[in-house]
């Protein structure tokens, strides 16, 4: 499974960005897909994940601001980020793992990762 992220960039505080991740390879809609982020010197952390049935889970700090969605026909998972804050600045990574994933927001659950896209607020 290969994952390629896009959509990052600079944005003013309070603004919005939409990240996208396109999957290729052995994907059949049965994967749990997620977004994680990392700042230098800190551990990568879960932001939002979406299961094959479309159910989503978010980290507490992102609830109400971020929305994750998936389009299995296009093998794409997106993250709409609104009301961005300085503390949202990070490298954002797409991740995928066959469902079920016992701890969806835990990075150790995922074996497939993209290279990341930088978001700077």
Share of residues in helices: under 10%
Shape by Cα distribution? globular
User: For the terminal residues, how far apart are their CA atoms?
Assistant: 30 Å
> How many individual helices?
0
pLDDT averaged residue by residue: 94
Estimated radius of gyration: 13 Å
Helix/strand/pairing category: mainly beta
Residue windows where pLDDT falls under 50 for at least 5 positions: none
| Major beta sheet summary | 7 strands, mixed
Instruction: Give the number of DSSP strands.
Output: 11
Order of helices and strands: EEEEEEEEEEE
Q: How much beta, percentage-wise? A: over 45%
3D architecture notes:
With 121 residues, the protein is an all-beta fold. It has strands at 2-6, 9-10, 17-24, 31-38, 45-50, 56-58, 66-71, 76-81, 90-98, 112-113, 117-120. Strands 2, 4, 5, 6, 9, 10 and 11 form a 7-stranded mixed sheet that branches. It has a 4-stranded antiparallel sheet with strand order 1-3-8-7, with no helix packed on it. The mean pLDDT is 94.
Features:
single chain, 121 residues, mainly beta, seven-stranded mixed sheet, four-stranded antiparallel sheet, 11 strands, globular
Summarize the structure.
This protein has 121 residues and is an all-beta fold. It has strands at 2-6, 9-10, 17-24, 31-38, 45-50, 56-58, 66-71, 76-81, 90-98, 112-113, 117-120.
């Amino acid at each position: 499974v290969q994952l390629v992220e896009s959509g990052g960039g600079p944005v003013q505080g309070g603004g919005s960005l939409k990240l996208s991740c396109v999957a290729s390879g052995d994907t059949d809609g049965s994967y749990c897909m997620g977004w994680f982020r990392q700042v230098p010197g800190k551990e990568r952390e879960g932001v939002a994940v979406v299961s094959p049935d479309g159910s989503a889970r978010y980290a507490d700090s992102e609830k109400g601001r971020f929305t994750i969605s998936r389009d299995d026909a296009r093998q794409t998972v997106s993250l709409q980020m609104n009301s961005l804050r300085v503390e949202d600045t990070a490298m954002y990574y797409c991740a995928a793992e066959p469902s079920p994933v016992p701890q969806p927001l835990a990075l150790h659950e995922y074996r497939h990762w993209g290279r990341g896209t930088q978001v700077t607020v």
